[in-house]
Structure of DUF427 domain-containing protein:
Amino acid sequence: MADHIRIRKAPGKWVVRAGGAVLAESANALELTEGDYPPVIYFPRADIGMAFLEKTASSTKCPWKGTASYYTVSSAAGDIPDAAWSYEDPKEGVAAIKGHIAFYTDRVTVEQL
């Protein structure tokens, strides 16, 4: 793993909300910190209402984490394109985030309970 990336169990319970609905709630989320960027919370798929997410054709590549796949979030307020992402096959150093999805905090609400 790159020296500037750290992954740990996120303390406490975390929730994702969009359009008034709870999309995810987890006591098993991971916190990834990368350099000077704000921490990102990754939620286990088992703790996400996957019916609210639809995979898109979008993808990006990170030299340290691998290729990210994106998801549109459906909410009562409408669809939020590419509001979540996942590393389906992350690089070895960040393998802990496999099976997890993160959300853009400027598009949905991610908060610690």
The mean pLDDT is 95. Strands lie at 5-9, 14-18, 21-26, 30-34, 40-44, 53-62, 66-75, 78-86, 100-103, 109-112. The longest strand covers residues 53-62.
